[in-house]
Specification:
Length: 142
């Protein structure tokens, strides 16, 4: 029976690989943070910069134009925008709001069509997500 024996006399490749594996989580975390912050910014910018086409109504003595179904939520007080935060842990990132109505706007209800603000922001960053992770990992590698 023929055999093959490999003897490595230069351990620098193994040391580089070991160092790379140790730095991999740091690169992934860095990428997740970058992506999460970019998506949050896009969600906020879409709300701030959209031109609502929904109905007009009076609130607090002022006229307000609501968003139409499918548009980002129209900004009334800015409370939703101010409440959108990022949270991070090892190898994860999250975009959250403490406003009870945030998910209702995103998904709609039985009485109101959705005014999505998060999913479209994620969709706009689709290909970027993989690219950002790759770049962040490469930046950490030896």
């Amino acid at each position: 029976m023929a055999g093959l024996r490999v003897v490595i006399t230069d351990t620098s490749a193994i040391e580089a690989l070991t160092l790379g594996v140790k730095k991999l989580p740091k690169g992934i975390d860095k990428g997740i943070k970058r992506i999460t912050r970019n998506i949050r910014k896009t969600a906020i910018d879409r709300m701030k910069n959209s031109t609502p086409t929904g109905r007009y109504y009076k609130i607090g003595g002022k006229m307000h134009r609501a968003s139409a179904p499918g548009e980002p939520p129209a900004v009334l007080s800015g409370a939703l925008i101010r409440s959108i935060q990022t949270e991070f842990g090892p190898l994860w990132g999250s975009i959250v709001t403490d406003r009870e109505y945030g998910p209702y706007l995103e998904d709609g209800t039985s009485r109101m069509a959705a005014r999505p603000w998060m999913e479209p922001a994620i969709a706009l960053h689709g290909e970027e997500i993989t690219d950002d992770l790759s770049i962040s990992i490469q930046e950490e590698m030896p």
